[in-house]
Design brief:
CATH topology of the largest domain: Rossmann fold
Order of helices and strands: EHEHEHEHHEHHHEHHEEHHHHEHEEHH
Radius of gyration: 26 Å
Number of strands: 11
Mean pLDDT: 86
Low-confidence stretches: 1-35, 449-465
Number of domains: 3
Number of helices: 17
CATH architecture of the largest domain: 3-Layer(aba) Sandwich
Largest sheet: 6 strands, parallel
Shape: elongated
CATH class of the largest domain: Alpha Beta
Strand order of the largest sheet: 3-2-1-4-5-6
């Protein structure tokens, strides 16, 4: 049987008991494990990414690059809002933080401090990519905006994610997933699909996650250019622009043409009957698209009379005219069979079908379990927890989970020692022997070690105004 593809050091157990109380906050952190993380082996092995972002969008993008083998170093401020939350065993190690910060090392630096900011510059000198979602004003005050850095680091890919375009009237405004859903038209289509006056936001932080994926593919393209030319560049990812473009793929519809040929809105998605169907024992997405799909479904439900309906006996279904009525017909017959029986019928007749995955039961779902999408791993300080699996597979350069999400600043000493060794190598006079080299390294490391501030167990809210979006 193949080894699970998502693991940290050793293979993750396929099944393990759930923690008794994952929300307990009084449990003290465990002592870190002595087992070293595995060396990166993915397609981005050898690429270094500095993560100067917070909350979800930037950290998720950096984590994906880490899953693909990059060495990701997270610059963590003295107080980090990304670690706030109520679901945790120890303060600062929340469920959301664990899910967007694996495969990273954490370095605690206060960028408002001149010495710490210079250490950050030393780190950037070793990096291929910087990812940040700080607002441009805060970056300029720190001297860490692209204009300030590009002369010093011409190879650096500077990926800057913001809520809105920097040349727009909305530049610099705070942006959150909900406001971007509104600004991109997602709330509009939700209102039209549900036919309600006060539509809710989509119940997932879609704008954050889609923007994170946009950061990833844009960064990968810039890396190809960097490898070919040796040059870095500024990569700007405005959340609003990203989500407007994402939303319009299907919903621009008749307004694709000028003058418009029809209204906006993708009719199948806006069909108010476009929803999960009740089965005899639960819910399932049963979506007959073609006339033949409808006839086969009605026949399987024991309603041959409906299969004779002229609306399902043409060359195609007229969704705009008949979509709602046909959805009601489908929904009237799906309780005839169980979910498992519908799965068999739909597979036989190629009718689109999907059982409704209940998140509370996801870890036991055979598809999830066999794909190692929620394996249990042992965090060095937090104990057993579910690791969200890497969803892609590479035949030659497999992605992997090598490091658990770090405690605040846990790798500061290690990373600064690496920088010290590089500084010694650059400054070492010709002919310097190994003993003298080690002495220089030791002196520099000891000097820096005395300046490293201890990690705070319970970070609080930083200057929220400095963050551009989730």
């Amino acid at each position: 049987m193949p080894e699970p593809k998502n693991h940290t050091g050793a293979a993750t157990p396929r099944r393990a008991p759930e923690p008794e109380n994952p929300a307990v906050t009084a449990t003290p952190p465990r002592e870190p494990s002595a087992a070293p993380p595995r060396e990166p082996s993915g397609p981005l092995a050898g690429v270094r990414v500095v993560d100067l972002s917070t909350v979800v969008m930037g950290p998720y993008a950096a984590q994906i690059l880490g899953d693909l083998g990059a060495d990701v170093i997270r610059i963590e401020p003295p107080r980090d809002t990304a670690r706030n939350g109520t679901v945790h065993r120890t303060p600062g190690m929340t469920s959301l933080y664990l899910n967007v910060n694996r495969n990273k090392r954490s370095v605690r630096l206060d960028l408002k401090d001149d010495a710490d900011r210079e250490r950050a510059m030393d780190l950037l000198a070793t990096a291929d990519v910087l990812i940040t979602n700080m607002r441009i004003g805060a970056l300029r005050r720190l001297g860490m905006d692209h204009e300030s850095l590009r002369g010093r680091f011409p190879r650096l890919i500077y990926a800057h994610a913001q809520g809105f375009r920097p040349d727009s009237a909305r530049a610099g405004l705070a942006a959150y997933d909900e406001t971007i859903q509104a600004a991109s038209g997602l709330i509009d289509v939700a209102e039209r699909a549900a036919d309600i006056a006060r539509p809710v936001v989509l119940p997932t932080i879609l704008a954050d996650k889609v923007s994170a994926l946009t950061i990833v593919y844009s960064t990968l393209a810039a890396l190809v250019h960097q490898r070919a030319t040796g040059q870095g560049q500024l990569v700007q990812v405005p959340m609003a622009d990203t989500m407007i473009a994402f939303n319009l793929v299907e919903h621009l519809q008749g307004h694709t043409f000028e003058p418009p040929l029809a209204p906006t809105g993708y009719a199948p998605a806006l069909n108010r009957g476009h929803r999960a169907r009740p089965t005899r024992d639960g819910l399932a997405m049963i979506i007959p698209y073609s006339p033949q799909n409808h006839r086969d479904l009605f026949a399987a439900a024991g309603r041959p009379d409906l299969a004779d309906d002229p609306r399902v006996n043409g060359e195609k279904i007229n969704v705009v005219r008949d979509g709602v009525a046909l959805s009601e017909m489908v929904e009237s017959v799906t309780p005839a069979l169980t979910t498992a029986e519908w799965a068999e019928v739909c597979a036989k007749h190629s009718i689109p079908f999907g059982p409704v995955l209940r998140l509370e039961e996801a870890s036991g779902d055979p598809y999830v379990r066999e794909g190692h999408l929620m394996d249990v791993a042992e965090h060095p300080t937090e104990g057993p927890y579910r690791v969200i699996g890497v969803p892609v597979a590479f035949s030659a350069t497999p992605a992997s989970v090598r490091r658990h999400a770090p405690r605040p600043g846990q790798d500061t000493e290690e990373v600064l020692a690496e920088l010290d060794r590089r500084a010694v190598a650059r400054a070492r006079p010709e002919g310097t022997g190994p003993t003298e080299t080690r002495l220089m390294e030791t002196r520099l490391t000891e000097a820096r070690r005395t300046e490293i501030r201890p990690a705070e167990a319970c970070p609080a809210e930083p200057g929220a105004s400095e963050v551009s979006g989730h």
